[in-house]
Design a protein that fits this description.
Elements lengths: L5 E5 L6 H9 L17 E4 L13 H6 L3 H4 L7 H13 L15 H13 L5 E5 L7 H18 L2 E6 L2 H7 L2 E5 L6 E4 L1 H4 L2 H4 L1
Parallel strand pairs: 1-4, 1-5, 2-3, 3-4
Antiparallel strand pairs: 5-6
Helix pairs in contact: 4-5
C-alpha cells in the first residue's frame, strides 16, 4: 500500500476479497503466515451496508460517535473534543444537518456517508471500504468516488477499496490487486500493468 494512494482489490463474488480485507484488519486470523502492520497504521473501516442495523433506534450522531470508542475508551464519557470530531466528520460527508435524525430515516446514500463519517472520527491513516458502491447507479457511484477522493486529499488518507467493479476501480486507483477466482492467483500493480488481455482472460 502506497502512503496517500488508492488501492483497489478486485475480484468476482466468492474470490476472497472480503476475507483478505478482514484478515488485513485483524478481524479474522490468517490461515498461514502472519500479517505485519506498521505501528503508524490506523484503519478506518467502512463495511458493506447492512440494512438490519436500521432497526436500532439510534441517531446519526450516536452511530458516528461509536467510531470514537477506541479513542475515548470503552464505557467512558464523551468529551467536547469527541463531539467536535463527530460534527466535523458529518460536515465532511455533507450530513451536518442530519445528526439528530434516526438512522432508519436515511436514504441508502446517506447511510453510506454516515458509515464513512463513523470511520473518519477514529482518526485513520488508512480508510478501508468494503464493496461501497454495490447497488448504486452510475451517477451515484461517480458522486461517491468523488467524495472519497476529496476526503483522501482533505485528510491525507490512504484508501483501500474492495470491489467487483473493475472499470471504476481502474479509473480511481493508483494500484490494483486482482484476485483470480478460479485458482486464487493474484496480480498486483498499477492499472496499466495489471489490466492486460492475458491477465484479464
Amino acid at each position: 500500500i502506497i502512503k496517500g494512494g488508492f488501492l483497489s482489490v478486485v475480484g468476482s463474488n466468492g474470490s476472497g476479497k472480503t476475507t483478505l480485507l478482514k484478515t488485513l484488519l485483524g478481524l479474522i486470523p490468517p490461515l498461514a503466515g502472519q500479517i505485519i502492520r506498521a505501528p503508524v497504521m490506523n484503519f478506518g473501516y467502512v463495511p458493506q451496508r447492512n440494512t438490519s442495523n436500521l432497526n436500532f433506534p439510534l441517531t446519526v450522531e450516536q452511530v458516528v460517535m461509536l467510531g470514537r470508542v477506541k479513542c475515548i475508551g470503552l464505557l467512558k464519557k464523551t468529551r467536547s473534543l469527541d463531539r467536535q470530531f463527530v460534527a466535523q466528520a458529518l460536515q465532511d460527508v455533507s450530513l451536518g444537518d442530519l445528526g439528530a435524525q434516526f438512522i432508519h430515516t436515511l436514504s441508502g446514500g446517506q447511510y453510506q456517508r454516515m458509515l464513512i463519517a463513523r470511520a473518519l472520527v477514529s482518526e485513520p491513516t488508512i480508510l478501508v471500504l468494503d464493496e461501497p458502491t454495490t447497488g448504486m447507479d452510475i451517477v451515484a457511484e461517480h458522486t461517491f468516488l468523488a467524495l472519497i477522493e476529496r476526503l483522501k486529499k482533505q485528510h491525507g488518507l490512504t484508501v483501500v477499496m474492495v470491489t467487483h467493479d473493475l472499470s471504476s476501480a481502474a479509473e480511481v486507483s493508483d494500484s490494483l490487486v486482482i484476485i483470480n477466482s478460479r485458482d486464487k492467483s493474484v496480480s498486483v500493480g498499477p492499472p496499466f500493468e495489471v489490466l492486460t488481455t492475458e491477465k484479464l482472460s
